[in-house]
Design a protein that fits this description.
single chain, Arc Repressor Mutant, subunit A, mainly alpha
Length: about 120
């Protein structure tokens, strides 16, 4: 079995890391996280997602487009409507991982504030 040259392997690893960074960057907005969480429940049309996000259709479409280009979502046009669905459900595991840490951090912060108010 031939061994790939180190330079080639580094290029492959760099490309993989850049692709992973694109996905993480695509998720890095509260509205996009809301859209991903909603689409985890099932396919939705842009009009429903616009109402849910409380933003205009242009803004929501830009968020959806960014998530689609990162591979997180896929879309399908049906007549005049576009429907989106989650293509990368594993991103929900990232959010599940983050939540307990955020809760612990908030509890620690509250405990710190409580201790300071007693002094």
């Amino acid at each position: 079995m031939p061994i790939l040259p180190k330079v080639k392997l580094e290029a492959v690893q760099k490309a993989r890391l850049e692709a992973q960074a694109r996905v993480i960057k695509a998720l890095a907005h509260p509205t996009r996280l809301l859209l991903v969480q909603e689409l985890a429940k099932g396919e939705r049309c842009v009009c429903d997602l616009t109402h849910l996000a409380g933003a205009d259709i242009s803004t929501v479409s830009k968020h959806l487009s960014l998530l689609r280009s990162a591979g997180v979502l896929v879309s399908e046009k049906r007549g005049t409507q576009v429907f989106y669905r989650l293509n990368m459900p594993c991103v929900l595991k990232i959010l599940d991982c983050i939540d307990p840490i955020l809760r612990k951090s908030a509890q620690d912060h509250l405990a710190f504030l409580s201790d300071r108010s007693v002094q």
